[in-house]
User: Fold this.
Amino acid sequence: MTQTDGNTESHRLILRQSQPEDYDDVAEIMERVYPGLDGAWTREQFESQIARFPEGQICIEDNGKVVAAAISLMVKYSRWGQDHKYWDIVGNGYLTTHDPKGDVLYGVDVFVHPDYRALRLGRRLYDARKELCEKLNLRGIVVGGRIPGYHKHADDMTAAQYVTKVKAAELVDPILTFQLANDFQVRRIVKGYLPDDKQSAGYATLLEWINIYFEEETRNVIGGRPSDVRIGAVQWQMRPTRSLDDLYTQIEYFIDAVSGYQADVVLFPEFFNGPLMAKWNDEGPAEAVRQLAGYTEAIRNRMQQFAVSYNINIIAGSMPEYDGERLRNVCYLLRRDGTWDRQYKVHVTPDEISAWGLAGGDKVKIFETDFGKIGILICYDVEFPELPRLLAEQGLNILFVPYWVDTKNAYLRVRRCAQARAIENECYVVITGSVGNLPKVENMDMQYSQAAVFTPSDFAFPHDAIAHEATANTETMLIADLDLDNLREIRSHGSVRNLKDRRLDLYELKWK
Assistant:
C-alpha cells in the first residue's frame, strides 16, 4: 500500500519484458531521473533496444503503468576490456553492439520512478537480470556504475578513496551502495566513463556479479556431472566372522541394497573388517591387527569388483596396511569406473599407538569423482580443522568420515567436530561407524555409532544443519540426496561466507 494525496491506493506490480508501447512511461521516468544527463532515450533508441535483445529489456508496471525498467545487452567481454566507455559499449543507445554469442550480460541502465523508490523495485530488476544471466548460461553481469555522491567529496579525497569508504559503509552512495548490497564487486575505477556526469566527476566503477552456475560447455546427457548426489552410509554391525567369505557376504549385501536406490556412493566405517582379528586374539592386539592387514589387498580387490558390477563408488571405511615396518590405517576410494585411490589416517590416537603401534600418514588430498570433488578423513582426523580447510581450498564439496569409537563421549567428539567442519568449510560431511560388541577382539570390544549427514547452516539447508541421521546403535543404512548447487549458492550469496571472508591478509594455512 502507498499513500498519495491522502488517498490509499492498491499496487498491482507485474514484472515483464518491455514493449514498444511502453515508451511514453519510460521516457517520463528517465526525464525525472536524469535531468542533467540528457533525459530520456529517443523512441528510436528504445525500439532498437527491444528489437535487438527483447529478453534483456525488463520493466515493472503498476496497474498498467510502467514505473521501473532495466536495459541490458550481451557482449563478448574480452573485446571491450576494462577501459571501455559507456556510449561505445551500448552502441550509442541503440544496442548495435549486442552479441547473441556473448559471454557476459552488460547492464546498460536501471531506473525507478521517484515516487516508487520505497518499494525496492530496483532489487527486483537486479534479481531478474541475475535469473536471465543464469538462464542464458553467461559468465556473469558487468555494469558501469555511476558514483553520484562523489562530487560532494571530490575536493577532499580521490575517487578510489571514496569508493573504499563506500565499501566500508563509512559513506553512502545512492548507486554504489545499492550495487554492493546486490552482491556486485568493484573490479576497477574508470575515468571518463561518462564525461558529462558531473555528479560522479566523470568517474565510474566497473562492477561484476559472477554467475556461480555458469558451465563452460553444455553437459552431455550421458556422463554429465550431476548437481544432486545420492549418498549411502552403512552403519555396520560388528559380529563374529569366521572367514573372508562371510565378510564378503555382509559387504555385498549392503552394496547391493544401497545401489538399489541408485546411489552414487556408499561409505563403510573405519575398521569394518575388525571381526576377523578374533582368530589371533590370543597373540595380542598388536599382532592381531598386523595379521588382519594380510587380508587388506584381497578385500580391496573384491570391493573394487563390487564397485564396477553394482555401478556405485565405494569408500571402503578403513583397513590396516602393514609393509613389514610401518602399520598404517588406510581408506580406499573404489570408483565404479574401475580406478581406485587411497587416503591414510594422518593423526593416530594415543590408544592406537600404545595398543597397535599405528603410524600416521603424511598427506591429504582431494579426490575427483563422477559426482564432484570429495575428501576422506578417518575418524580422529576430523577433529583437526586444518585438514578439512586444506581440502576446502582445493574445492571440497563432500567430506566422508568413517570412524570407529567405543563410547558415546568419543562419538560426540567426532560428531561435533564434523558439524563444525561442515559450517566452517561450506561443505557436506557424511559420517558413519559400527555398532555392537566383539567379546573376543581385544581393543575393539565395544562400538557406538549414529551415522549422519551434516550441512552448512543457512536458509538453503535444514534448520538444524542435519540432512539425515540414523537410529543410534542399530545396524542400518542411511540414504540422502545432497544438492551441490546449494553449496555454490552459499559460497557466493550466503548469510555468512566463511571461505570468502577469511582475512588472508592476516593469516594463511600451509602444508609443509
User: Anything to note?
Assistant: The longest helix spans residues 408-425. The domain at 228-493 is CATH 3.60.110.10 (Nitrilase/N-carbamoyl-D-aminoacid amidohydrolase).
